[in-house]
Design brief:
Number of helices of chain A: 18
Low-confidence stretches of chain B: 94-103
Number of strands of chain B: 0
Strand order of the largest sheet of chain A: 3-2-1-4-5-6
Number of domains of chain A: 3
Largest interface: A-B, 116 and 86 residues
Structural class of chain A: alpha/beta
Strand content of chain B: under 5%
Order of helices and strands of chain B: HHHHH
Largest sheet of chain B: none
Strand content of chain A: 5-15%
Distance between the termini of chain A: 74 Å
Shape of chain B: flat
Oligomer: heterodimer
Distance between the termini of chain B: 57 Å
Largest sheet of chain A: 6 strands, parallel
Chain lengths: 462, 103
């Protein structure tokens, strides 16, 4: 047991230092993995110190709860496919928010009316933000897991309902602080906040979920920080706020990578604009041309320069290893091969780098968007594998398009474009793609993995 | 835990805001996802709150709430850490190290 408050404080300080170092390391490619370990050490120190506090009891419950949580965490994190990582981040973020809200509720219950006003403020904030993060993250999870439609879900009067829900929750929080310290007020606040979390994420399109998850991640940090004020715990205040601040910063950077403002992502109601532009495009006489693996193999074999544009479809088909094989085969024929990585290819910034690194694709072949775009006019074949929105020329040319202004890979400037896709279904943003109708484009339909395996044998036969 | 007084706590809070912005000011795009996951792990620190609430709980209501909070917070910590580690594992054989390897 530790009873000296100075020792406790110093141990928590050590944990805080670990978290700061962890964040610093996590933003450097070389040190990132070590950063996670340092963060883990900080967490171990903080947990051990807390368990050793004087008077901590209910051991069976603590151990039991920790055991269940550990099993859920380990199994969830270890068994999930790399492609499903974004929704796992959403899920683990949500449970953290839920925990913060519950800690606030329990503290309120225990205090039984004897709370200083700043404590009530903290409890109300923690309950509000934690609950929004919890239910919002679950909706984000459901959208990415495709349990819910990835398209924005909208209904008439939605903005009004959302505003009323949030105002209602805030009013209940105000009532708590003003001295109506009844438990039903806090429970009602929790209920409204949960509802708001759901309503807030529903109208946001699946393609924008990474930004939303990042924002909710910052929210959970804030909620954790707020609980720190109730519990007079510096480690909670500082660590929670570190996440709150860095998470907000990261959210801004992610939105910037998509050339959009956070407000536009959150309230843009992506889908509504789309229905308007979609209608004009029906039947303008141009058709999509499809091709066979053999034809593509010939085209590739006689190219001098091939650029592979991987997208989420490649990840879903788990075709990253096959793509690497194909690229190596082409290189052995003296063809120059590069990969063009859009900053938001996949479903999160950096997602595609992670997946291709997993397949041992040489790092120097991965080209960032700004680096590769000037090369497309000298590229013979652009091989687009399961990517859609990030190569949609509407982002450059059509101000009515919801993705207008987003920087894209200029594959339409290559001599020919081959798009490998499962079907003509629109991309995650739910928008039609002009590129598919371009006379330079041919489509190779089918599962990306099957198509690439066929391509490999065809190229060998050429 | 010791009560530091509101003003000192607020001071610490504000410093943490600046530190949070500063510490990740330069992060390459490819690390955005792992960094998000890493910060997701760090806010699992709310487990400290869960342990305190559950560890000092007397009545059934608080115990029940504390128990659920404990489960959720542990899942956040453990799941968050492993997800981050799996993502970062992909970066371990990055170019710099690989170029030094005999090929």
């Amino acid at each position: 047991m530790i009873s000296d408050p100075d020792v406790i404080g110093l141990l928590y300080l050590a944990a805080i230092v670990c978290f700061i170092v962890a964040l610093r390391f996590l933003s450097s490619p070389k040190l990132a993995r070590r950063g996670n370990w340092v963060g883990g050490a900080g967490m171990a120190i903080a947990i051990a110190t807390t368990l050793l506090l004087d008077g901590i009891g209910n051991w069976p419950l603590i151990v039991g709860g920790a055991a269940i949580g550990t099993v859920v965490g380990v199994v969830g994190a270890r068994t999930v496919k790399m492609t499903a990582m974004p929704q796992m981040v959403a899920l683990f973020n949500g449970v953290g928010g839920g925990a913060a809200a519950l800690v606030a509720l329990a503290e309120f219950h225990v205090a039984d009316g004897a709370l200083a006003s700043e404590e009530t403020v903290s409890i109300a904030l923690s309950a509000l933000i934690g609950s929004i993060s919890f239910s919002g993250s679950l909706v984000a999870f459901a959208k990415l897991q495709e349990l819910l439609s990835g398209r924005p879900i909208v209904f008439p009067g939605q903005k009004l309902v959302n505003a009323a829900t949030l105002v209602g929750a805030a009013a209940l929080g105000g009532a708590l602080v003003a001295g109506v310290e009844a438990e039903w007020v806090l429970l009602a606040l929790l209920g409204l906040a949960l509802l708001f979390g759901v309503m807030f994420v529903l109208p946001i399109g699946g393609a924008d979920m990474p930004v939303v998850i990042s924002l909710l991640n910052a929210f959970t940090g804030l909620a954790a920080s707020a609980t720190g004020f109730v519990l007079d715990s510096t480690v909670l205040i500082v660590s929670g706020m570190l996440v709150g601040a860095s998470g907000t910063f990261l959210t801004l950077m992610m939105a910037k990578a998509m050339n959009r403002s956070v407000a536009n992502v959150l309230f843009g109601a992506f889908g509504q604009v789309q229905t308007a532009t979609g209608a004009d495009r029906v039947d303008d006489g141009r058709t999509v041309r499809s091709t066979t693996a053999d034809d593509v193999a010939v085209q590739l074999s006689y190219a001098r320069r091939v650029v592979v544009v991987p997208g989420y479809g490649l990840a879903v088909a788990q075709a990253q290893h096959d793509v690497r094989q194909l690229a190596e085969l082409l290189e052995s024929k003296g063809i120059d091969v590069a990969y063009a990585i859009h900053p938001v290819a996949g479903r999160m910034p950096g997602h595609m780098n992670v997946l291709l690194a997993e397949a041992n694709v040489p790092y120097d072949q991965l080209k960032e968007m700004d680096e590769i775009n000037p090369d497309f006019p000298q590229t013979d074949v652009a091989l687009v594998i399961g990517a859609n929105d990030v190569v949609n020329p509407a982002a450059r040319s059509d101000p009515a398009s919801p993705i207008y202004g987003m920087p894209i890979l200029d594959v339409d400037k290559a001599t020919s474009v081959i798009v490998m896709k499962r079907s003509m279904a629109p991309g995650f943003a739910g928008i039609d793609n002009e590129l598919f109708l371009d006379p330079r484009t041919t489509m190779l339909f089918g599962n990306a993995k099957d198509s690439i395996v066929k391509l490999i044998s065809s190229v060998k036969a050429v | 835990m010791t009560d530091l007084g509101l003003v000192i706590e607020l001071t610490i809070l504000v410093l943490a805001i600046f530190l949070g912005f500063e510490v990740i000011s330069k992060v390459p795009t490819m690390l955005h996802t792992p960094l998000m996951s890493g910060t997701n792990f760090i806010h699992g620190i709310v487990i400290v709150g869960a342990i305190v609430v559950l560890g000092y709980a007397d009545d059934t209501f608080t115990k029940a709430i504390g128990f659920v909070a404990m489960v959720l917070a542990t899942a956040n910590v453990v799941g968050g850490w492993f997800v981050t580690d799996r993502m970062l594992e992909m970066f371990k054989r990055r170019p710099d190290e690989r170029r030094n390897e005999p090929s």
